[in-house]
Amino acid sequence: MRHNWSGLLNLIVKFLLSISLTACNSIFDHSVRQSESADIYLQLGVRYLDLNKLEIAKQNLLIALDKDPNNAQIQNAYAFLCEKLQDYPQAKQHYLMALGLSGDAWSIENNYGRFLCEHGDRLQGLGMLKKAFATPLNDKPWIAITNAGRCQLDIQTQKNALSYFEKALFLNSNFVPALLEMQKLSFNAGDYSAAQNYFKRFSYVDVYTSESLWIASQTEFALGQGQMAHVYEEKLLEKFPLSQEAKQIRPVLQ
């Protein structure tokens, strides 16, 4: 009788264990599915952010947040969206949540450091950016280095800014944001040949801003190249007809 009870007990334990393991597997599978689903909505949200379709980006990122609120990259993307929507308190809150979840993800440090620089806390922002580009895990340090240069521009230490932009271009000679900043600095310093050269370097990849085209036209005028200056003015009017720079030249052309 005792032997039969022992055998029955073993069967019950094995049965309960199998139920427990099945439940654990089910919970694990559900968690994995939730995470994978959240990643899909994250990718959609980031894609729509790139296209500047902010309302659709928000819809997707909110779904991603609901499915996986402890995902640092989702928090990071949503913080960036809040920036674009000019909801700066929410942006800061979600950047801090992303940092708390990630520990030391350089992309989040870069975004939050840039955010701080642009909203008045330049000292802390620069420290965050330095941390972002110093980590060996960062395979694109020129992004954070360029943001550090921009942060230095804001506090009017152009010499420091220049060294950051030069370092960024040493690491990636075709990085457009750093080339744009060097074009601007060179033009403001009266080094028109250098400004012309920097503009040509990023125009090879057909990347323009209204400001870069405006500076390019003014650079050509300064170098005595009026025909080329008008070419850039026409391109400015074509690509950015509603920009402030276009408004400055339209009366001249009409």
How is the topology of this model organized?
Elements: H1 2-50, H2 54-67, H3 72-84, H4 88-102, H5 106-118, H6 122-134, H7 141-154, H8 158-171, H9 176-188, H10 192-203, H11 210-222, H12 226-239, H13 244-253
Overview of the molecule:
The protein has 13 helices and no strands. The radius of gyration is 27 Å and the shape is globular. It has a domain at 176-254: Serine Threonine Protein Phosphatase 5, Tetratricopeptide repeat (Alpha Horseshoe), CATH 1.25.40. 81% of the residues lie in helices and 0% in strands. By secondary structure, it is mostly helical. The N and C termini lie far apart (108 Å).
Terminal CA distance reads 108 Å
CATH superfamily of the domain at 176-254: Tetratricopeptide repeat domain
Main sheet characteristics: none
Could you give the order of the helices and strands? HHHHHHHHHHHHH
Instruction: Count every beta strand, where a strand is a DSSP E run of 2 or more residues.
Output: 0
By CATH, the architecture of the domain at 176-254 is named: Alpha Horseshoe
Output the structural class: mainly alpha
Helical fraction equals over 70%
Question: Helix segment count?
Answer: 13
Low-pLDDT regions: 12-32
Under CATH, the topology of the domain at 176-254 can be stated as Serine Threonine Protein Phosphatase 5, Tetratricopeptide repeat
Shape: globular
Please identify the top-level CATH class of the domain at 176-254. Answer: Mainly Alpha
Query: What is the overall pLDDT average?
Result: 84
Give me the Rg, rounded. 27 Å
